[in-house]
Amino acid sequence: xxxxxxxxxxxxxxGAASGLLALLTAAAFLRRWxxxxxxxxxxxxTALLSLSCLAFAISYSPRVTISGAVVAPVVFxxxxxxxxxxxxxxxxxxxxxxxxxxxxxNLRAGGRSSPTGQVRVRLRRVEPTGPDSGRPLVLAEAVxxxxxxxxSLQAPALLP
Length: 160
Prior knowledge:
Elements: H1 5-31, H2 36-59, E1 74-77, E2 82-86, H3 96-105, E3 118-128, E4 134-145, E5 151-153
Helix pairs in contact: 1-2
């Protein structure tokens, strides 16, 4: 996991500001200033912002990019072991495998209920068969192991 340095630094600065505001709030209560209850709200909100920035900075992970791949939108996700991404009609053959690998690499494991611990990612496009009809054509398939994080490309001959 990589921490985002800007958010991490902002969280540290907000933490220092909430500490100073806590001291100011304590002084306001000791001196019975009229603004003391507003300072409680400002201090708690600043502390909350600080913790939120730090938590997001630690949990942030950038998207994986693979050379030769293009962005393909996910059009179906079962929440389990199957994800289907839509390929453009003019997608070159050399980009089929890298695009499927990129979509599989960017999947998050949380919340998936795959009995085998693996997710199949199929890259497909719809081939027109008539004026208002078409059939799906699977171009490439990648399999991601949710436990280890490994991603592999399936051979096109194994595709249904």
